[in-house]
Design goal:
The longest helix has 10 residues. The strands form 3 sheets. The chain has a 6-stranded antiparallel beta sheet with strand order 1-2-3-11-5-8, with no helix packed on it. It has a 3-stranded antiparallel beta sheet with strand order 9-4-12. Strands 7-6-10 form a 3-stranded antiparallel beta sheet, with no helix packed on it. A hairpin with a 2-residue loop joins β6 and β7. By secondary structure, it is mainly beta. It is built from 3 helices and 12 strands; from the N terminus they run ααββββββββββββα. The N and C termini lie far apart (37 Å).
Length: 137
């Protein structure tokens, strides 16, 4: 649980998830990691009826998600690490939620950050990355 993470009742080794959470997910050896620039993402679960997706993100220092606007929502739990989003800094155990229409471009501040992310819907990317993304899709 979130409180368990705050109280230090979590794994001290990657993927930094409590055993009761890991028990609800596919076995780690079945996770299929995908590159997203210098970061890695492992899609864990998807609900076909709602389109909700649960993924694990591992990103190095300096990694920045391109500026984007949520067409759905995103909920993120920082399992281990530090990220900056706008004028706010979030650390291990922080629980963030971005509603439809919110825009941001988080950046990793520490050596490596692990995040559990639940997304519903799509994102609209801005700037050159957005133009390329729209061209390719």
């Amino acid at each position: 649980s979130y409180q368990g993470l705050l109280q230090g009742q979590r794994s001290e080794a990657p993927p930094y998830l409590p055993p009761q959470v890991l028990a609800q997910l596919p076995q780690p050896e079945r996770w299929h990691w995908r590159r997203r620039g210098t970061a890695r993402v492992a899609p864990l679960l998807e609900d076909a009826s709602t389109g909700a997706r649960l993924s694990l993100l591992v990103a190095p220092k300096g990694f920045q998600t391109p500026r984007h606007t949520h067409e759905g929502s995103e909920t993120m739990l920082i399992l281990d690490g530090v990220l900056e989003d706008g004028d706010r800094v979030y650390r291990t155990g922080a629980w963030l939620h971005f509603d439809r229409g919110s825009t941001h471009a988080p950046v990793i501040l520490n050596d490596e950050c692990w995040c559990l992310i639940r997304e519903v819907g799509t994102n609209t990317f801005h700037g050159p990355f957005g133009w390329l993304h729209r061209l390719l899709n």
